[in-house]
């Protein structure tokens, strides 16, 4: 069963075509990754999937609902972990989750114990009453993950989920995502870390200049093109990850 499907997806920003007529399907229970250089269109695709912006043309369906016709129905079933930190700096860790739960009409009598459970899952329990300003970057990433899970989503969208984290914190997040996938949650992510894509993704779509260059499992792509996943990425996009980070 396809949780997400796109046919002829186009997104224009004025005269700039950010996404150029792409097709893809994402199956229930898989982890699907979008890889590509900065400006390839990855984040734009993610924003269309979670109904943050409409497509210019083409058809995108999530849970068999059109993103332009039933955004509220789609949003109720998904969680989003953004790349940027948009936590409320005036609230504590626990308060951020409880306030966010209101968007899903979860009453406080339910949201408070749910938030505590999520903080335990993300190893943030001891930070319950800490102000956001006093959290490290790694702790903020874990809290963003906890917040994305507040409505028990069937589909979790993660934009660079471990950006800026040290190797130990990154592996900790990977373990959490592995557990979610084991429980049946469908995951969609963007990442610049090829090790992350190899570890988590069942399939990846490599994008360049708004188009999908290829789709397949990391293992299949490495067998087909030779080398590791970063070598494949370089062959297909002509750009090393170090250059993108510069």
Walk me through this protein's architecture.
Helix 3 (93-101) crosses helix 4 (108-121) and helix 8 (218-225) packs across helix 9. The chain has two domains: 2-77 and 155-245, Rossmann fold; 89-152, no CATH class. The longest helix is centred in the last third of the chain and has 16 residues, at 167-182. The chain has ten helices and ten strands. The relative contact order is 0.16. The chain has 246 residues and is of the alpha/beta class. The strands form two sheets. It has a six-stranded mixed beta sheet, sandwiched between helices. It has a four-stranded antiparallel beta sheet with strand order 2-1-4-5. The protein is globular.
Compile the SSE list and pairings.
Blueprint: E1 2-13, E2 16-27, E3 31-35, H1 42-49, E4 57-62, E5 65-66, H2 71-75, E6 78-81, H3 93-101, H4 108-121, H5 137-148, E7 155-159, H6 167-182, E8 186-190, H7 194-200, E9 203-208, E10 211-216, H8 218-225, H9 229-237, H10 241-245
Parallel strand pairs: 3-8, 3-9, 6-7, 7-8
Antiparallel strand pairs: 1-2, 1-4, 4-5, 9-10
Helix pairs in contact: 3-4, 8-9
Give a quick rundown of the structure:
This protein has 246 residues and is α/β, with parallel strands linked by helices.
């Amino acid at each position: 069963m396809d949780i997400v499907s796109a046919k002829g997806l186009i997104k224009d920003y004025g005269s700039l075509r950010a996404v150029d007529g792409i097709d893809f399907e994402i199956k229930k229970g898989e982890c699907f990754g979008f890889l590509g250089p900065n400006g390839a269109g990855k984040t734009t695709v993610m924003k269309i999937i979670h109904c943050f912006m409409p497509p210019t043309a083409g058809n995108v369906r999530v849970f068999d609902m059109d993103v332009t016709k039933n955004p509220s129905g789609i949003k109720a079933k998904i969680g989003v972990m953004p790349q940027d930190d948009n936590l409320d700096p005036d609230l504590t860790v626990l308060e951020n989750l409880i306030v966010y739960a209101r968007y899903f009409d979860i009453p406080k009598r339910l949201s408070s114990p749910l938030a505590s459970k999520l903080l335990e899952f993300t190893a943030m329990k001891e930070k319950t009453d800490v102000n956001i300003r006093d959290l490290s970057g790694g702790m903020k990433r874990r809290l963003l993950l906890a917040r994305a899970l507040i409505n028990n989503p069937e589909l979790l969208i993660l934009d660079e989920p471990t950006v800026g984290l040290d190797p130990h914190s990154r592996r900790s997040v990977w373990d959490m995502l592995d557990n979610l996938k084991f429980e049946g949650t469908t995951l969609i992510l963007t990442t610049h870390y090829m090790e992350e894509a190899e570890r988590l993704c069942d399939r990846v779509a490599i994008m360049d200049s708004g188009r999908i260059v290829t789709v397949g499992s990391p293992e299949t792509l490495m067998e087909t093109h030779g080398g590791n996943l970063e070598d494949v990425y370089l062959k297909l996009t002509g750009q090393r990850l170090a250059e993108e980070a510069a």
